[in-house]
Write a structure and sequence with these properties.
single chain; 759 residues; TIM Barrel
Length: 759
């Protein structure tokens, strides 16, 4: 039996990837130094794989995003980027003024760049799989290149349609038309075949093609296309292993009949795959790659249980390999450096490096190795002990009633009360919450955590930052202010520090997109709030101004979805526990006179199951968790924020959340997201339109932002519209934020005058 691992984090043990990228962007290192650093990272990864697995994957290390790399492989470069100029154009597509749209990869917190198909033609443009394979080969490693499959590439891409004269000059939309999909497939497959042929010619024996889109709801005509793709690619004569993950394959029979040599199944995220294998059998002529080590959760595997699963599968096939369930880049690199976790937790954890070891142990234990079998037994005994229980939290959950999930007054009445209290103008302006986390802010936070400055010194520093940001917002002319979140490292991690039952790490970094990293907290026990979490900073900010300052909280669904969570209780229960803790905070903020409270739920969409049949169960508890956390007085205006999500299919569930105002991304999609609200009949909630793309250092013009607002006004009543950036400003520099927000406020004021003059 082989051990096959894939998707190892590219970040590096000391975040070398992040430093390389950001040093290059700042001009601190040359392009050649960037390439040299990436080569070192590639070899570090290869050695880790070699130590623990039987197959070393290549073509996994991207300079920004693997879907962007695939778009470049097939020549899908929109005309607006002009002639391709290497890294300059690459990063312009990733993070420039007219960058590709960014959205979540399936139901994960990884953001991918959405390829745009502008012309129905493809060509082999940059053969990265071959280049990577040859680099490793020169260094003495035989590898299996990993390539995003043609079907997944098209399913996750969008078609670009140019318009004449009006702004924005183009729109993008999903490729859902059958004829268009078939035409594009016919043009795309020859490029994939050319890539495989070049690899075969170079001596490559095997490729791993990732087709996670095959776990989505897939119609028969789409399966026809998939069969056509692999019928053509199989003619090359190179061994093909197909990888699917995040859910069960949508059609087991058609998947297992594809003309490939190996098939990977995620046996962790779902029960259907294993049931289908056991009930329907597995082809004798194919390798079964059993993804039984969880690539998305940090818990040590019950190796006894996993070994039993392998033994059961070995009765169904003579060609069995063990693997991780999905890419390992959803995990930190290693748990080794973590020394300050709650007692008893570290030995229950397994990050990416430890997952590789688990694969090796399972492989050798399956072969009868005595030391490996001892390790299997020891792990199982450790996991038998209960951990992190809180009787009072469980009592509160049991006592919940239906009315606890509803606000006392309907929206129409709340709206009248809130407008009378707040007296905001047409197109009120605000920001999402955070302001630039300067080197000084990060330095002082580190100094406080390491004991170099006292708590009182740190709090005084934070007060000065709050004073500055309130004065800045007053000067710019924003209508609703925020306190800047200078005391917060991350919108989820901050609350994890304050809540019992959740642990945080010091080195558990995970890439979200580009060089942006975060440390997912670990929900290991019952969650509770021992004391107020945000009251001190927000009430101080409000004391400095007569304008309303928003209370800023992260919602229960986002805290859950952006954390690693325990698996011994249902997700619904964890969400309600977090919601109760947040509700206590809402009550304290209201008591202190805060009139607007924003409960951010950017991860509400990404937690949605990939198959529609599973949606209702998820939304039943996700909507209720938000409503439980936001059960405020009718006079309190509840905001929420969602970014980089596909709204069209879930708009009815978003409406059920019963907020007063929602702020959304609209800049990268050029207002396309507004169509979701256009199609929803009876939409009456206020919407903050994200007119400023904070993920790009480019400063938006008033004309560009106005175009997004004008697109919105065609769909929604002007009285419902707010104006804001599309996300928090934490990652931007002040010299970018100041002119951008001035442009935004001036645009809103000008538009307000135009509309009022026309009334």
């Amino acid at each position: 039996m082989k051990a096959i691992a894939f998707g190892l984090p590219k970040l590096g043990e000391k975040r070398e990837f992040k430093k390389l990228l950001e040093d290059f962007w700042k001009g601190n290192i040359s392009e050649e130094e960037l390439h040299a650093g990436m080569r070192d990272l590639a070899l570090w990864r290869a050695d880790l794989y070699k130590e623990n697995a039987d197959v070393i994957p290549s073509n996994e290390l991207s300079y920004y995003d693997f879907m962007l790399d695939t778009a470049l492989m097939v020549g899908a470069v929109p005309q607006r980027f002009g002639e391709y100029k290497g890294m300059e154009t690459y990063f312009e597509m990733a993070r420039g003024k007219s960058a590709l749209e960014m959205t979540k990869w399936f139901n994960t917190n990884y953001h991918y760049l959405v390829p745009e198909i502008e012309r129905e033609e493809f060509k082999l443009f940059i053969n990265k799989p071959l280049n990577d394979y040859e680099f490793y080969k020169q260094k003495g490693y035989e590898t299996a290149p990993h390539i995003i499959g043609a079907y997944t590439f098209l399913r996750m891409s969008k078609a670009l349609r140019r318009k004449k004269g009006e702004l924005p000059l183009y729109e993008i939309e999903k490729i859902e038309d059958r004829d268009q999909f078939e035409r594009l497939t016919d043009k795309l497959v020859p490029v994939y075949r050319e890539v495989l042929e070049s690899l075969k010619k170079a001596g490559c024996q095997r490729v791993h093609i990732e087709e996670p889109a095959l776990v989505l709801d897939t119609e028969d005509w789409q399966w026809d296309i998939v069969e056509k793709i692999y019928s053509e690619l199989s003619k090359v004569g190179i061994e093909i292993a197909l990888f699917t993950y995040y859910d069960s394959v949508s059609d087991y029979e058609r998947y297992t009949s594809l003309p490939v040599q190996a098939l990977h199944f995620d046996l962790v995220s779902n029960k259907e795959n294993l049931q289908n294998i056991k009930e329907k059998g597995f082809p004798k002529d194919k390798e079964l790659i059993a993804g039984i080590i969880n690539g998305r959760q940090p818990w040590r595997a019950d190796l006894s249980e996993k070994l039993r699963t392998l033994e059961d599968l070995s009765k169904l096939t003579d060609n069995l390999s063990v693997s991780n369930s999905c890419p390992l880049y959803h995990l930190p690199v290693s748990v080794e450096p973590e020394e300050d976790l709650p007692e008893g937790l570290k030995e229950r954890l397994s990050f990416a490096k430890e997952k590789l070891k688990e694969l090796r142990v399972l492989k050798t234990a399956f072969g009868g190795d005595k030391e490996a079998l001892k390790e299997v037994e020891a792990t199982s005994k450790l996991l038998e002990v209960s951990f992190g229980e809180n009787a009072e939290v469980r009592r509160r959950i049991t006592a919940l009633k239906d009315e606890d999930f509803r606000r006392e007054v309907p929206y129409e009445e709340r709206d009248k009360l809130q407008r009378d209290i707040l007296k905001l103008p047409l197109f009120p302006t605000t920001t999402i919450g955070s302001y630039p986390q300067t080197p000084e802010v990060r330095k002082m936070r580190t100094a406080y955590r390491t004991g170099k400055i006292s708590e009182s010194e740190y709090k005084e520093f934070i007060k000065k930052q709050i004073e500055h940001v309130i004065a800045f917002q007053e000067e710019v002319g924003l209508d609703v202010l925020v306190h800047g979140e200078f005391e917060r490292t991350d919108m989820v991690e901050f609350f994890a520090f304050k809540l019992d039952g959740i642990a945080t790490t010091k080195h558990g970094w995970v890439l979200s997109y580009g060089s942006r990293v975060y440390r997912p907290p670990i929900i290991y026990g019952d969650v509770s709030r021992p004391k107020p979490m945000t009251l001190e900073e927000i009430t101080y900010a409000q004391s400095l101004t007569d304008k309303p300052v928003k209370g800023m909280l992260t919602g229960p669904v986002t805290i859950l979805n952006w954390s690693y969570y325990r698996e011994d209780v249902p997700k619904r229960v964890i969400a309600y526990q977090i919601a109760l803790a947040l509700l206590d905070e809402v009550s304290d903020l209201e008591g202190a006179g805060i009139k607007i409270i924003q409960i951010d739920e950017p991860a509400f969409r990404e937690g949605v199951p990939l198959k529609r049949k599973d949606w209702q169960e998820y939304f039943n508890w996700a909507v209720k968790a938000f409503r439980l956390s936001s059960r405020a007085k009718p006079q309190t205006q509840i905001h929420t924020h969602m970014c980089y999500s596909e709204f069209n299919e879930i708009i009815e569930y978003i409406y059920q959340m019963d907020f007063d105002v929602i702020s959304i991304e609209a800049s990268r999609s050029k207002g396309e997201i507004i169509s979701a609200f256009e199609k929803f009949k009876g939409w009456d909630r206020q919407i903050g339109i994200g007119v400023y793309d904070i993920h790009s250092p480019a400063i938006p013009t008033k004309e560009e932002m106005k175009a997004v607002m004008e697109r919105s006004m065609k769909v929604l009543p002007k009285e419902l519209l707010w104006v804001n950036p599309d996300c928090g400003l934490k990652t931007r520099r002040w010299e970018e934020v100041e002119p951008a927000l001035k442009n935004m406020v001036e645009m809103a004021k000008g538009l307000r005058e135009e509309v009022m003059a026309g009334v």
